[in-house]
Structures are given as structure tokens and as C-alpha cells.
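Table S2 (continued). Query chain:
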Amino acid sequence: SHGSDTAWPPSRDKTLLPMNIYYAWDLPISDSLINSVMQTSASYLTDLAVSENQDVGDAPLYPNYAIYDTTLSRLYGDNLPRLQSIKAQYDPNNVMGLAGGWKF
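Corresponding output:
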């Protein structure tokens, strides 16, 4: 690739296009059920794509579309140590850790 280093995607060796699966529900009591359904749907679609010879089994997930419990390594791959180092340097008091989202 001719681009400079970025957080995402971890590698520009292959082109990736994020896909957003959207679910909506009203009752908080349904949160765990819907989260399970989202994970099952994402796994099913990934397995189906892999079965059709698409090289996406270990593709990094786009952070804005990833399910809440996705690991940082699945989002940022080999870039994670560099990002953690930058975070430690510029946010030593963990101010950004007070907000929601993934924690470096």
C-alpha cells in the first residue's frame, strides 16, 4: 500500500469492506438475547463467506460496527502494541478510559 500507517485496518495487504448488521429492540430485558443473536448472525455470515472461499475468517472488524465485547486484537491486530504505547504516552492518567468504548 502507498498509505501511511493507520490504526485500522491493521494491514492494507487486502481490501476490506466493513459490513454493518443492525438490530433494534425496546426492552432492556432483551439485551443479552439480542447480543447473542447478533454474535450468532455474525458467526454464521463469516462461516458462510469462508465456506465460499472468501478470505475473511480472521479479518479485522471495523471498530464502529463491532459488537461490544470484541477484543482489541480483533480490531487492531498487529497495530495493538503500538496503539497501547501511544495511549500510555499521551494519556498517562487514563482520561480516555473514563469514556465508553474499547479500553487500550
